[in-house]
Amino acid sequence: MEALLLGAGLLLGAYVLVYYNLVKAPPCGGIASLRGRTAVVTGANSGIGKMTALELARRGARVVLACRSRERGEAAAFDLRQESGNNEVIFMALDLASLASVRAFATAFLSSEPRLDILIHNAAPAPGISSCGRTHEPFNLLLRVNHIGPFLLTHLLLPRLKTCAPSRVVVVSSAAHRRGHLDFTRLDRPVVGWQQELRAYADSKLANVLFARELATQLEGTGVTCYAAHPGPVNSELFLRHVPGWLSPLLRPLAWLVLRTPRGGAQTPLYCALQEGIEPLSGRYFANCHVEEVPPAARDDRAAHRLWEASKRLAGLGPGQDAEPDEDPQPEDPGTPSSRSSPLSEEPTVSEPHAIPHNSPDLSKVTHRIQVKTEPEP
């Protein structure tokens, strides 16, 4: 009996050590008030994205939930308004697998929103997406949703990000990037079978890290900074979505014990979006709210630039079309209530409550730091 109790105590102690050192996420600090600022979070109807949007809303930001499902997106927006007490949480339709949808979203957003301060690319389907009723796409669906769609969206919204600088772009990546390898001769070829999907997922996460790196180079000196963020092992819908039904009851308790909650997974993306003083680290990869070194393939500047050029081609951006011209007027001062027109779309694209504008603080004290991209050699 004593041996049994001792064994149980040792197991409990080991679990506590693992939980607090590997599972539990450090809380995000950063800017306390985001009143007068606007954030876009893709894939924000559940999981990490929803928790990220909740924290931004609690800090007073106007938050746009960019989601594929109207029903789930509008339900999430309603939940977040109720929980945060912030009426400026809205839904806008976005399907990252469709470049036409990405362009429609950008058009609607730019016509209705005068500001964009934070862009968080959270939508990141796991392996198995091609088995979810989308099996006949003539392209690499994982790369399209995880990288090409966000790449195009960033380019289309860059003019607005620049006019609202200092602003930030956060790309939610994964430790799976360490297993990635980009074959530029077959980047967009469809993948078949779970083994190819696992490889394609890792490749798309490597593309995320390289994209953040090259974007930082392209935007140096503009006041727009960008970061790749690893949320850690998270117990979200994606984890059990494609598990066989008979296995799910066995894995759920294990996932609860050893995986982070979606709220915990949101901490590093929030850190990258809100933490002051990390501007010189633009383009770097963050995990557990601090910079983490990446393997050589993820810090290869030549590969990053080559991916940039290939992504422009796959996204339909020809020479001289790095971004759409920003013909909209300059953003209003965050301290001034703004009138927002309805987005131009054949179908209703935006779901927005009647919000009572709240007074916004003076942001004139925000410091514009010099953008210096530094990275020590490992």
Automatic annotation (TrEMBL):
UniProt KW Secreted keyword: yes
Compartments, as annotated in UniProt: Secreted
Alphabetized SUPFAM superfamilies for the sequence: NAD(P)-binding Rossmann-fold domains
Annotated spans, Disordered: 315-378
InterPro entries linked: NAD(P)-bd_dom_sf, SDR_fam
Molecular-function GO term, any one: oxidoreductase activity
One Pfam match: adh_short
Source organism superkingdom: Eukaryota
Entry coiled-coil feature ranges: none
UniProt entry keywords in alphabetical sequence: NAD, NADP, Oxidoreductase, Secreted, Signal
Any one GO cellular component localisation term in the record: extracellular region
Biased composition (Low complexity): 333-348
Family label: Belongs to the short-chain dehydrogenases/reductases (SDR) family.
Function: Putative oxidoreductase.
Protein name as annotated: Dehydrogenase/reductase SDR family member 13
Organism: Panthera pardus
